[in-house]
Batch of 4 targets.
Target 1
Amino acid sequence: MLRVTVELLPGGDARGRRTVATADIGRVRSGAFADYQVDMEENLLPDQVWTGVLQDYPRWSASVWDLVARSIAVALTGKEQLPPRPTIPPIPVHDADGPWPYVRFDDIPEPTRTFFMHNLRGSSTPAFGSAYAWDWEDFLTGQR
């Protein structure tokens, strides 16, 4: 079995490393053309698990990264094809002309909402179920 681990190294410092996602890829049928079961999890989305079976993969024909990429694609889409490139969701800013523009959590689709809310822990918010628009912008640009 292969285990692919995605780790976050804050500021490039390995001492603060934290696992954010894992993928287990196990061979379920051997031979020149093998089948692989893939199970993926993401720590911030504990209730979400992606699974799939990569069938008839020609063993020893390419780099292990080819197997990993195809396994991830199968778990995400059900086929050896990447899903469309994601885009930043268009989130409306409320009271944009007021002194404290804000965004509503309910307007932010998953999994972005979960990541953003996790990022806001310990921060003040203008009202229950919302966040300051500048926190949202900082989150999107990686400054938060």
Target 2
Amino acid sequence: MIDTAQIIDSGTNILFVTFDSLRHDVAHAAAENGLTPRLAGLLPGGQWERRQTPGTFTLPAHMAFFSGFLPKLPQPKQPSRLWECRPPTFKEVPPETFVFDAPNLLDGLAIHGYRTVCVGGVTYFSQETPLGSVLPAMFHEAHWHPEFCSPEPDSTRYQADQALELADRYDGRQPMFLFVNVSATHVPHGHYLDSSIDSAASQAAALAYADAHMGRLLDRLSGYGQWLVIMCADHGDAYGDNGYHGRGIAHPVVFNVPFAAWVHACRYSG
């Protein structure tokens, strides 16, 4: 059980990573087959939890996440939520859940002294259009460049470099909520298999590519102190499953997403 309320009260940094469009079955098989050794060495038990997303494409999923609704376990009994908007008086919230008295998590963290920063990936974070500005506007600052987006084969390297630059900028100044939307697992990703066709196999190859940069990011961040780390997908993607293609549809491969949360230890003490 993670005591998010205590973690935030203590000013611990938070890293929240969403692997855009990553299916649970793809992530699970990649870990099982040794394609993601860095992530497997970080995830609790070396494997992803299977959870179900509250949204079937990027915008509603992230709006739900930032409103307090992370993916849930596919079972009746649920663990305590990591964070939740202040509920009506008749509802009790477990003491370990961080309750924010604000319209969204980012504003709630700001009240607690956090600097909220976004490293965007897919175009819902690009700020190029009115709709692509909705999510970035929730943060104190949001960063996006074309090379952060999925058509760029080395997108995760650029995103990790940006995240580390931000961590260095705010280290010691104030606690940080660092959000990264990894775009490599979003279509198009066939190029990771030298193909023009996107598939579960090419998504696995995209995740294998991103693995090293996620490991590098966590290695470096541990030098800035202790972090609460949450990693998940916002939704999955269909590649011809039962004849379905894409996202925004009610299909199990879209609903079932990987999830993990843990406290990442500081590399030094004192």
Target 3
Amino acid sequence: FQPGDADKRQLFKVGVGYQLTPQLNLGAHYFRGKQSGSASGASNGKANFYVAVADYAFSKRTDAYFGVDHTSISGGTALVLDTASGARSRTGITAGIRHRF
């Protein structure tokens, strides 16, 4: 949430991780945020965050990961994810290979 005249924030999270095979770990998480207390109402709103991840271990020190997340907000007119575009939802993708030395 962005600064404004709202003075109260609440966050709820639930998530699960599961080791499908010795090499493959999966995870999913959901976050729900609420911002309130704005006298004008412009900064009051809600946000939903969804995250799904997979991690595959090639060895004890090398793994590949892939993640997708989606964020959406609703409510007050002052709440946007990007002030330039005015976007109120966004999806991101992360992928990579990690090696621990």
Target 4
Amino acid sequence: MTEPAINIRHIAAFAATVRHGSVTRASRAVNLTQPALTQAIARLEADLGCSLFARGPAGMTPTEPALLFAPRAEAAIAQVGSPRVTGTQVRAFLALARAGSYAVAAEATGLSSASLHRAVGDLSVALGQRLVDRRGRSIMLTPAGERRARGFGLAMAELRSGFAEVAAWQGKAAGRIVVGAMPLSRARWLPETILRFTKAHPGVDVAVMEGSHAELAGPLRDGEIDLMLGALREAAVLDDLRQEAVFEDQPTLVMRAGHPLWGEASVTGARLAEFPWILPARDTPLRQYWEDMMREAGAEPPHVAIECGSVLTVRQLLLGSEALALLSAAQLAVELQAGVLVTRPTPVPVTRTIGVTSREGWRPTGPQEAFLGILRQVAGEGFD
């Protein structure tokens, strides 16, 4: 994801001026001369396209957009954690952390490898911390590097939100919502939400990042995505994430048309154990629900030879074999309507909670709040 070209010193100068209400006191707080601080604010005003302060005998009075932007600026500065860090260093280090090598990061940013090396090296010196370790042609972040990468990512997320909020105040539809989508949400819930949202907010972009919970939780924590949709996890293991239950889903047995089980009057756990199964990985709620279902139905869960979380792949595997899967009917609506796949109830009811996961302390922008509202509305209408 491309980071905004933001000067962190300008952000710090602005935040200090809002806090102190005076160029003199703010310049002392951020160790800038008064002309340099005034110039920094002027450049930020040019970037935002509006005045941030009313200058008068009483000092610097923040305008309405300044008061909107100030909390985001303060949060970003806190996440960066050092006044010695520059925006160039942040962008270079984030690119390196996400790419895993200087060569790939250089290709992604358009900067030379030498420039990236220099920026990351200067950042390490400024912070007094070793941030990366060499592993052949790739790099590994040190524990300090991982903490810094997360903080920088969250800082950039705050500033993107701040710019979007000021644009909205100006009457410009702007901003971007990045959604992490686990498999179930991609069937009907998320697409219907996006259709309604983009019609109501045509100037706001929506990006969808697909993956499992394990693949999406890191980018969510790092500020690369704004919210994640799918089956909720045990709250005890998500101390830094917040979950909101939106609806209950009841997975069902799915098989090809003409499957030997289709015509049987009743199904026992022992009978289900005779067939191969296609299921997601062990660390997913659906896999645990399946194991619980099998045991409650009187059989030990059989070995799962094919683990797969892709509905497209599962569909093809079911069509060409006597395998069984445990899925939501909405995920295979087209195939079920066409009659090439069929469902039947599970011997023991299976229910899972589907919802929205976000970062603790996340403050959504206006468009993000609207998106959440439509997610809840669509789910309430039965798009599960």
